[in-house]
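Thread title: Can someone regenerate the structure for this chain?

I was given the following input by a collaborator and told the matching structure tokens would be attached. They weren't. Posting the sequence so someone can regenerate them.
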Amino acid sequence: MNKRTINVGVIGYGYWGPNLVRNFASLDESTVTVVADRDPEKLQRVSKLFPSVLATQDAEQLITSADVDAVAIATPVSSHYALAKAALLSGKHVLVEKPITTTSEQAEELIRLASDNRLVLMVDHTFIYTGAIRKIGELIDSGELGELYYFDTERINLGLLQQDVNVVWDLATHDLSILLHLIDEKPTGIRAFGYRHIGKHQEMAELNLRYESGFHAHIRVSWLSPVKMRLTMIGGSRRMIVYDDVEPSEKVRVYDKGIALGEADAEETTAEPIYRAGDVFIPKLDRTEALEVEGAHFLDCIRHGRKPLTGGAEGLAVVRILEAAEQSLNANSELVSLEISDGGT
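Best answer:
Regenerated them for you:
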């Protein structure tokens, strides 16, 4: 694409849509030309903040517009597939909010459509583009943590209760995308526990993911917590990481702590544990807003025909795990096998 700027249309101006509009409007490489939402009051806010942007209740008008090169979709999960498919069939590049679709079959079809039409299909796994996750990835890739033992995360808050999906599809999607991005080994099985108290969907859940190597991951999510927590711990044989996304400044801490077994004496049947407690390192993080990094990456992929860091395959891999978690929830938390390749298929 040789155009100086890429025209972006945004569908959905509810919770996440305003952030997408703001970031694409601020980037030199893009211009927001159309925003679609069913709510007239939301469209009035668009017109007030961005007078040059066409505000419409008709998503089809946006998708078929000759003044739109790429479509960003920030709507309920149940609508992702239909909107993304229509956009791809209209020759538009697509950035779709997580999760990419409600089924793996739908995700596979979108991947095929994007490939056949040489279009960029990217999933809004925003945390992958944060300075914190990028730094953690560097630390893991460098071998700083040693042999990896576990990934343990807690993502809880009060609301927002979703009407079309349970808490696993809403909140655990973030942690699954982070897990798949940071850990090269793919999980082989999952066991899910869910709890419903108010509505028709589970508001609290736990996921336990198994790996052949002995590494394991535990994810806890809830809409019913009186406090907001976004805490992740990654343990290794040499060092351990604590990532607290709620912490305003020192989000990542690297602990030089660990435990190992010493050599047993001839008279001893078991070796004594040796505990190591060293310094705490707080790495410097890139403070650029994740959506700005993500938006720039999306535009760069469009302009140069590059594969997105969080493309359709990565979105599909997350959906496969979500489907398996749902299967486990519906089968009294039985262990469900997983087969996920590096390409997400």
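The first helix runs from residue 17 to 26.
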